[in-house]
Amino acid sequence: MWATAVALVRAVRTTLGWVEHHLVLLVAAFTVGYPVAARVRRRIAESFATDRVRYQYRAQARFDPDAEQIWRQAALLARAARSGPWWVPGWAKTVRIILRADGTSPLDFYVEGSGAAAQLLTATPYKKVTVSKAQRRRDKHRDHTVRAEFLLAGPPAARLREVPLEPDPLQPLVDALATLRADLGDLAEIHLDLQSVPSWRLRLKQWQVLGEARAKAHSNARRESRAAHSAALDAEDSLRAYLSDLVGGDEGRAPRRMVVPARPRPVDRAKALGKLQDSTGLLRVQILVRCSSDEEGRAEARVAHISAALDVFSTTSRLRPRGVSVGPLRIRSDHRLYRRSFDRRFTSGHLTGPSSWVHAEEIAGLLKPPTVHCTLPLLASDLPVYTPGAKGLLPLGWHTGPDGVERLVASRLSDTRFSLRIGKSDYGKTTQALVQFVALAHAGEGSLYIDPHGDTFADTAPYLAHPEIMERLWHIDVSDRVTDNDQAHLGTWNTLGLEHGQSPAKVAQSVVDTFTAVLGWSDQSHPRAMTLFTKSVGALLTVNEKAVAAGLPDRQATLFQIVDLLGDPVWRGRVVEHLPAEEARWWRTTFPTYPDDAANPITNPLDRLKDNPAFRAFLGCPTSSYNVRHAMDSGKLVWLSLSTSGPSSRLLVATLFNDLYRAGLSRRDTAPGHRVECHVFGDEQISTDAALSGPVFASICEELRKFGIRMHVLAQLPQRLSKSTLDSLLQNASILSTTAGSTAAVSVIAQEWDGRVDVAEVAQLDRFQHYISVVHDGRRLGPLLIRGPQLEEVFGAKARPRKVGQLQRRVLANLGARPVHELLRTAAAQSGLVAAFLDPNAPSRQPDARAPQDEEGPTTPDVK
User: Fold this and answer.
1) Are the C-beta atoms of residues 498 and 511 closer than 8 Å to each other?
2) What CA–CA distance (Å, rounded) separates 413 from 862?
3) What is the pLDDT of residue 793?
């Protein structure tokens, strides 16, 4: 053993001697070789960086990871960072998390790493997250760029603040980036490069930290010893000690106090090392931030806002910008001392600069996309801003963005299918719909507004009094005010008319379905009434086909001729003569077997319709100036002022809606690309839905979308809508909106928003405030808080109150409207005209010759 030691000493002396004699050669070799080796390593790292791949993580609306999922994601990323050939430098093996925003989305989340780790990067434990490959594109040049690198400041073993996952730790960053504007070239990128800590580095760090802890313990012991010695000296020099000496002399003096030096306290390893005690979950990270803009000052403000957002992690340890500040002098990452290194690391992801050591739990909030607990703002680019006259847009309301600017946001018509608005009366639903109707009118779109109030047209007319709008506008008013106005004019609508090319079979189905649904008929309750009504409609449609074919559309029968068909045997006989043999046989053989009162369920509702002058004038004429199919195809603006009170009014409303449904389905004969869109606004849909008494409205919502019909429904209490109607609206609505209302009412809409807004908050909204969600580019935005638009506020510059009289005259001309008293005369004479058409040799029939029926209804003698 002694010989081995001697030999070792001699070898060391020989080696040192050789080095001494060849020192110049060794220094020269090192001077030349080290830069070459460093350059080779850098080239290898740069070549390795070109193979990096990037993936985007897109979280669903209900994404809500727990701590365990985030821990597993961190473990995957740490493993992925070690992927790569052995000869690649360790500082080049990293995984990068990229948080990016450019004003077009609130915050995009990317993960980037070596191509060898692609499988690990895509195998995320996050549920409700879609991983897709993204391109590493080069951004365009911006005029102003600001850089910042954030380092961990504080004791190396101390942890950052434990930030809870609810609310989302990313919320401050999302808020900091909410005011980015794409039109100004704003761009913000936060790069988080990470890799696991090598064991040898950790041991060195542990030795360093423990050494500092022991040194601090010795320093504290020395300080305590000095303090004890000083206290002892102070005691001996005190007044008490002097008085004791004077009284007792040397004999009374206490012996000199001996001071025992303080011993250093043992170092608590776990406490001293803190997060450095174990390598599990320990990561080396570097945080690089770069903000750019084409406008001066915006990038600097964004970096300052991001720095403030990262303060959420601050405690004893915190993230601070790298650099030096001496008075007004600040040397940051933008300085030429740091800029080149920053840009190289920002581009490559290399961990060659100063790094920070953190535990995965400390930065858990940065290792995932925004969750359900993160409120994403509506960016300026998310929804278009409406200006009067803009085409392809539907104004929604005034929304205050993160920058404090109030904008009139709009939905694209291409994204708008159906809308549902609920809330209190006089809180802005109707006003919002009127603004949208006017906006569509000025954009050249076709619309139909069903107005049960009958008084909103006067409020809207000044904003429609433009020549290009007036020529497309129809207004049909069959409300109670027509009865009281001797000068009233009306258009006409023959529900059985065929002069516009309607299909007789579809017209028959529409009319029969309307009556059976509204009157509550079924095969069990009213089988004879259903059969009689179906046969009657079919017979009169046969007559109308012949009249139209003969070029005499003014000889067509109307609904009111059903009473003549069932109650006048002579009139019926003339009709039967023109029916096909099979149909004529039924009237001659089967109809006489029905009892006398079989027709009462049919004639009584028709008599009630006929007793209303407005309804009789509108429905009793042979030809139709109102043709909803023509209105759809030509982009007309139709305003229907209806009353929904009373059985006769409900019957009329139901007939109009069934005709709308039939006309929409009839657009099958038009190629999809040529179907002109028609927006239908249904105000106070509760009363309309009650009038329909069937799944008609649900069918409109479910089937007519593909035929270009867009429904917009307004209702105070959604729970009063029929279940089929409400289900169809919630299923297909691209816009959901609610004002203040009862908690039971607003909760119907709030449930569709997955609890993102509190029901109590919605119920207490101020007047004209709405919560609204809208589909944009295939994704749902909101709910957003908006202020409802007002006609004067949006279209004040387009108001033409002095041209309202001209508008009213033009509307009457467009519709071919005639005085009501004249229409009543036409309706009264129609039965005689039809009879004359069927039998030219028959004596003319005097108008109004039919006497009122008693409750038992007309008799039905045999047809001879």
Assistant:
1) no
2) 58
3) 94
- Return the CA Rg of the chain: 43
The three-state secondary structure class of 825 is helix
Token pair 């919002």 in the structure block, residue: 432
Paired tokens of 175: 């808020």
Q: What is the pLDDT of residue 168?
A: 94
Q: What is the torsion angle, in degrees rounded to the nearest 10, for the CA atoms of residue 815, residue 819, residue 825 and residue 828?
A: 50
Residues 6+ apart with CB under 8 A from 522: 516, 530
Positive or negative torsion for Cα 829, 832, 834, 836: negative
Q: What is the DSSP string of 54-108?
A: EEEEEE-TT----HHHHHHHHHHHHHHHT-S-TTS-GGG--EEEEEEE-SSSS-E
In eight-state DSSP terms, residue 260 is P
Nearest to 197 by CA among 91, 115, 273, 85: 91
Backbone angles phi, psi at 692, to 5 degrees: -70, -35
> What single letter denotes the amino acid at residue 228?
A
Could you give the 3-state DSSP secondary structure of residue 331? Answer: strand
613-645: string of b/e by CB count within 10 Å (b at 16+)? bbbbbbbbbbbbbbbbbebbbebbbbbbbbbbe
Q: How far is CA 492 from the centre of its chain?
A: 42
Q: How buried is residue 490: exposed, middle or buried, by Cβ count under 10 Å (0-12/13-18/19+)?
A: buried
Encoded tokens for 133: 């490959």
CA quadruple 804, 809, 815, 821: dihedral, nearest 10: 120
For tokens 């600069």, the residue is 353
What sign does the dihedral 103-104-106-108 (CA atoms) show? negative
- Cβ neighbour number for residue 550 with a 10 Å cutoff: 10
Q: Name, in order, each residue with C-beta under 8 angstroms of 244's C-beta and a sequence gap of 6 or more.
A: 252, 253, 254
List Cβ neighbours of 71 (8 Å cut-off, separation of 6 or more): 281, 360, 361, 364
Predicted TM-score of the model (pTM): 0.81
Across the chain, which has 864 residues, the per-10-residue mean pLDDT values are 79 79 72 70 75 92 92 94 85 92 91 91 92 87 92 91 92 93 92 92 89 86 78 63 60 57 80 87 94 94 94 92 80 87 90 88 94 87 90 94 89 91 91 96 94 85 95 89 75 92 89 85 87 94 94 93 92 92 92 89 91 91 92 93 80 87 89 92 81 73 88 90 86 92 91 87 93 90 92 94 93 91 92 89 51 34 33
CB contact set of 762 (below 8 Å; sequence gap of 6+):
738, 740, 741, 746, 749, 750, 771
Which segments within 213-295 are labelled E, that is strand? 282-293
Domain boundaries, the chain: 1-50, 53-197+279-366, 201-276, 492-624+820-864
Backbone dihedral region for residue 98 (phi beyond 0: left; psi -120 to 50: alpha; all else: beta): beta
Are 409 and 378 contacting, i.e. CB atoms less than 8 angstroms apart? yes
CA 619 vs CA 490, 533, 611, 642, 827: distances in Å = 10, 17, 12, 14, 8
pLDDT at residue 16, as a whole number: 78
C-beta neighbour count of 563 within 10 angstroms:
23
- What percent of the residues of the chain are helix, what percent strand, and what percent coil, each to the nearest 5? 50, 15, 35
CATH code, 53-197+279-366:
3.40.462
Taking the C-alpha atoms of residue 571 and residue 566, their distance in angstroms, rounded to an integer, is 9
How far, in Å, CA of 294 to CA of 354, rounded? Answer: 31
